[in-house]
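User: My collaborator and I are trying to settle a disagreement about how two of our proteins should look. Neither of us wants to argue from intuition anymore, so we agreed to look at predicted structures for both before our next call. Could you fold the first one, then the second, and keep them clearly separated?

Assistant: That sounds like a sensible way to settle it. I'll keep them separate. The first protein:
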Amino acid sequence: MSPTKIVCIGLNYREHIEEIGAKLPERPQFFLKPPSSLIGHGDAIIFPRGAERVDYEGELAVVIKDKMKDTPEHETLNHVLGYSCFNDVTERAIVMKNIADLILAKGFDTFSAFGPYLVTDLDPNNLEIKTYLNGRLMQHDNTKNSVFSVQQILNYLSRCMTLYPGDVVSTGTPKGIGPMKSGDVVEVEIEGIGRLRNTVRH
């Protein structure tokens, strides 16, 4: 099942919002990544030609089970197929030069790492999430510290657009984003799901 789109939420962890000096959003902030950016567990993250700084962003991903449009908040989880780990890879230098180029900075091939498993029967709003770079812990938070719950996110998105089976919704990254270099190993680990592992190369 291939996604028609990958929807990513920005500014959803309080410490990350403080880290970058932003304000708490009043509604979920989102952007789209092309399905062509999607890779799996064990695949390589490839630096784009001319890239200056490529960052990891560990996140919880939600996969949609069936069509969602204007779905009430209390019904949203009934439309979830499962949860997985996600690395919302970003060419940070592009974003820092012009925030309007956010989709460009995040949409390169291999910039959406997903896996290793799709897990059901979890409480998505109370999961430990960690990101490791070459074995060193770089990000650590709990999804309970998100500004918007998974239910709130899915309700809001389904009012903005139709979500289809296989679509991926990634729910934002905690504090501690940082750059990677060729040869690095980046891992995103989420409680109850497993650990997504990818190498980085030019």
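The second protein, kept apart from the first:
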Amino acid sequence: MHPDLATVKELQAVDREIASLTSKIEIIPAEIKKIEDQLNEFLHAHEERKSRLAANQKERRDLEGEVQLIRAKISKHRDQLYEVKSNDAYRAMLHEIEGEETKIRGIEDRILEKMVEAEQIEKLVREAAARLEGEKQRVAAEKSALQTEQKDDEAERRAAEERRAVLAAALSNSTLRLYEKARQSRGTAVVEVIDASCGGCHVMLRPQFYNEVRASDALMTCESCGRILFYVSPSVGEDLGESTRVAM
């Protein structure tokens, strides 16, 4: 076996670990924003209901004030009934009083509707107020857990990057260039030969080349995709109890 082969296999494992940690780290800010948005939506809904309740109360006060004005008007008209000089004028005044009383009944119906609506909103406001502190604590705890996870992942990634630097330094320049080229173009740089085929592109190796991969101590690359190849003898596979192996 080529002396660099074990190292590039380990380097690939470390690169995958770094990539996995980077993916986890990169999504954490979005997860934090998501739970912050949940709290903001809860607070917005709570404030919106409180505003609706305040508007409802103002509308009721305005309607009640309107009723008072109409009642004062009716009272004035009743006093004027004693001053009219003709039956027609008397009937006209009574008709106007009846119209004002009809207005009052309509306004009182609207006040009742506002009261029912207010009861419903007040219930929602009380429920939200009771949940508010718990929601804040939940969000704070989840953010803290995510931030701790991010710090741990970043520390783990730094350690992996340090291991990578050591492994890369242990490789010959030619091997490192070969590895980096395959990794950047193919993603997976080192693959096992399985059933005489490249474990990366699955192209069947030429018989002579396949035999060279099996027997040579040189670092061999797939003629089709350029990945670095390694071969595990069947006896080793049997000892491991594996009939097939997945490319690293």
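Some points you might bring to the call about the second protein. Helices lie at 5-81, 87-170, 173-186, 207-215, 234-239. DSSP finds five helices and three strands in the chain.
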